[in-house]
Write a sequence for this structure.
């Protein structure tokens, strides 16, 4: 089944970015009137960071865009209404509601579940889902559109392609991949002494940057039944994926790529995007 839909998660609180902005006078206050860091203006024309991710998605051939937002999504609605995103995709907004007994959203697995509940047609198709604060390449987005006998897949990035320090890479999620190229598990921030054991046969450490392709009906029960992370107190998408491959080996194919992924994590990263057109 052809993958024509891209889901971007832009409903998080961006707490780390907001804290770091307070330490740099040049960027202080940049998020005062925007709900998510994907809307931070970057590049030569001051466009929202999200603009450039959507631009790559259009070039990769996606036709439908679903933005998972928080309830206060007026800025995203205005972005769509005012045609301030690249043209070429039909845009839908999904809202991740916060449970009455919580102050913050329930996590990325819950965000995707709520999107699929609001747009049930996604349960019967293949789609790509990713973060809104990483600038994934046209090539990576194209890779996840390709038809395969296994509809569920993710990009496995070779860490040697990153332009990040070893310390920053150690904070990413490491992938344990079978010799046939299927995901065995995703390991969040493993101890430094364990990391060499996850290198593949080429000596490459494979990293997940939270960009996946799913058949909706396959992933949905694992989103719904995803347990709360004991530390973050959230339902996290990598955990849902891990539970799926534990119950259904060979259900998620790993697609290798080696390239840098620009990442908007804290205030220091904003300057890295100054030359975007």
């Amino acid at each position: 089944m052809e993958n024509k839909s891209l889901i971007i998660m832009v409903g998080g609180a961006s707490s780390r970015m907001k804290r770091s902005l307070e330490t740099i006078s040049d960027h202080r206050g940049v998020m005062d009137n925007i709900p998510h860091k994907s809307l931070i203006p970057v590049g030569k024309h001051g466009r929202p960071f999200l603009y450039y991710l959507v631009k790559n998605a259009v070039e990769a051939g996606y036709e439908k865009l679903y933005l998972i937002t928080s309830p206060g999504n007026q800025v995203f609605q205005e972005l769509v209404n005012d045609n301030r995103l690249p043209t070429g995709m039909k845009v839908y907004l999904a809202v991740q509601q916060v449970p009455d007994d919580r102050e913050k959203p329930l996590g990325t697995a819950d965000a995707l579940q709520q999107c699929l509940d609001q747009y049930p047609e996604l349960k019967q198709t293949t789609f790509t889902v990713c973060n809104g604060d990483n600038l994934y390449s046209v090539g990576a987005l194209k890779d996840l559109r390709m038809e395969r006998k296994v509809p569920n897949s993710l990009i496995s990035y070779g860490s040697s392609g990153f332009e990040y320090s070893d310390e920053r890479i150690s904070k990413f999620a490491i992938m344990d991949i079978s010799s046939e190229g299927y995901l065995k598990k995703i390991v969040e921030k493993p101890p430094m002494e364990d990391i060499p054991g996850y290198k593949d046969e080429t000596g490459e450490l494979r990293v997940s940057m939270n960009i996946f392709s799913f058949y909706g009906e396959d992933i949905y029960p694992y989103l719904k039944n995803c347990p709360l992370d004991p530390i973050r107190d959230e339902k996290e998408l990598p955990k849902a994926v891990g539970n799926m491959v534990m119950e259904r080996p060979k259900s998620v194919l790993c697609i290798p790529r080696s390239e840098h992924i620009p990442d908007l994590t804290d205030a220091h990263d904003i300057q890295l995007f100054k030359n975007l057109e």
Observations:
- Helices lie at 15-21, 49-60, 74-81, 108-118, 138-143, 166-169, 216-224, 237-247.
- The longest strand covers residues 64-69.
